[in-house]
Amino acid sequence: MHPTDPQASTPVGALSHLKVLDLSRVLAGPWCTQMLADLGADVIKVERPGLGDDTRHWGPPFLKDADGNDTTQATYFTACNRNKRAITLDMATAQGQALILQLAAQSDILVENFKVGGLKNYGLDYASLKEVNPRLIYCSVTGFGQDGPYAERAGYDLMIQAMSGLMSITGEADAAPGGGPMRVGVAVIDIFTGVYATSAILAALEVRNRTGAGQHIDMALLDVGMAVLGNQAAGYLNTGAVPQRQGNTHPSLAPYQTFATLDGAMLLAIGNDGQFARFCHACGHPEWALDARFASNTLRVKNRDALIPALQAVTRSRSTAHWIALLEDKAVPCGPINDMAQAFADAQVQARALVINQAVAHVDTAQAAIKSIQNIVTVASPLRLLATPPVLHRAPPSLGQHTEEVLAELGLDAAAIAALRVAGVV
User: Fold this and answer.
1) 49-83 pLDDT, tens digit each
2) Cα distance between residue 394 and residue 389, in whole Å
3) Whole-prediction pTM
């Protein structure tokens, strides 16, 4: 299936045999459940009646209607809720709790991001649900985990970027213009947590295949924030040297940074001595590769203050496009520094069909007719399983869009569902 064509014949997804109950909101949990949904799982997203997920209101920017005017639906929500069925249930009510219990009994996976112990008050914690569904894989996503002195604290991506040390190594050095700690431009800890949670769930499914038993997964944003420090953490833990901010340069590689060009800037990412030698020959300075100060990566890092100004003087003499064309066939990593519009217009991005357009029909139920067509655009899943590729079932749902459908599957008739609406349960 071509991912931009929602009308195409949809193959069976890798996880099409699984049902997921999504009690999460905002980003980390929904990112995980969208990954599962893209892989074919039937994901039922539960939201608060009348309000829904917080990110439905995190705007601007907002989705546009057919006439190009802002709606009340923030675009943020669409980033992590594609392919799901959305229902509304008030879990503070006994009836709402009973319905969630029914759904959990029929589910393979449950994902939630309530505060530690929050769902125990409703009888929806892992220990309670394990009794009715011992095969359930129950994934809890919190800021700090299920134990430890901070377990009761709320945790948010920006807070974890600061606490984990990520902001201390992101941004320009204090002495440089604009220096100071800087957050990453997207909620990277939330997103990484969603990806790690998906990996943990898939591992738990393998265990269940062998043993028949589900389990509780404890995912913490802080744990993930520390884990993704990668080589910077490894350097500190093994040497005791605290990494510092250094803008777009790399602590262990040179030249590996942005360089000014005649008409802007480019990224040069040289990772070994062969690449450096080829760059030197291409730019007309083969002697640099023979210079004792620059003969190895370690020496180039040590002599960065001499190397980089010399390179900058040369890179400024030609345009970004010229450098990319010059170096492309020489296996020297070099590229433009795109803004979002340029990135999505890139030929490779377009060739990989990374943009999904989904037409959503808004129906006037009283007249049984379509009121309007809305286009929702999202980024395609990067998971390219060639035999069982990601599927495209549904656009990001409107609040409560599938409530009647899902409750009918539980055996409720129209009168019972109407009574729940009157009571404010759904």
Assistant:
1) 999 999 999 999 999 988 888 989 999 999 999 99
2) 15
3) 0.92
User: Which CATH number applies to 19-228+382-422?
Assistant: 3.40.50.10540
Residue 126 to residue 112: CA distance in whole angstroms: 10
Given a contact cutoff of 8 angstroms between Cβ atoms, the answer to whether 373 and 20 are in contact is no
Boundaries of every domain in the chain: 19-228+382-422, 256-347
* Tokens matching residue 91: 């879990």
Q: Where are the alpha helices (DSSP H) in 259-319?
A: 273-282, 287-290, 297-302, 304-315
Please answer whether residues 324 and 336 qualify as being in contact, where contact means their C-beta atoms are separated by less than 8 angstroms: yes
Q: Which CATH architecture has domain 256-347?
A: 2-Layer Sandwich (3.30)
Strands 264-269 and 256-261: antiparallel
**How far from 106 is each of 21, 101, 110, CA to CA, in Å?**
9, 9, 10
Q: Active-site residue 190, yes or no?
A: yes
The strand ranges marked E within 201-308 are: 215-220, 256-261, 264-269
User: At 367, which amino acid appears?
Assistant: Q
**E runs forming strands in 98-220:** 109-112, 137-142, 215-220
Residue with tokens 């399983």: 385
Distances (CA, A) of 251 to 162, 256, 354: 20, 9, 32
pLDDT band (50, 70, 90) for residue 8: very low
Q: What is the mean pLDDT of residues 173-184?
A: 93
The active-site residue out of 42, 108, 190, 223 is 190
Question: For residues 48 and 92, what is the distance between their CA atoms, to the nearest angstrom?
Answer: 10
- Which residues are within 8 A (CB) of 208 and not within 5 positions of it... i.e. 6 or more apart? 135, 137, 214, 215
Distances (CA, A) of 49 to 87, 101, 411, 423: 9, 18, 21, 11
Alpha-carbon gap, residue 77 to 84, rounded angstroms: 12
CB 29 within 8 Å of CB 187 = no
Question: b/e per residue, 240-251, with b = 16+ CB within 10 A?
Answer: eeebebeeebbe
- The phi-psi region of residue 284 (left if phi > 0; otherwise alpha if psi is between -120 and 50; otherwise beta) is left
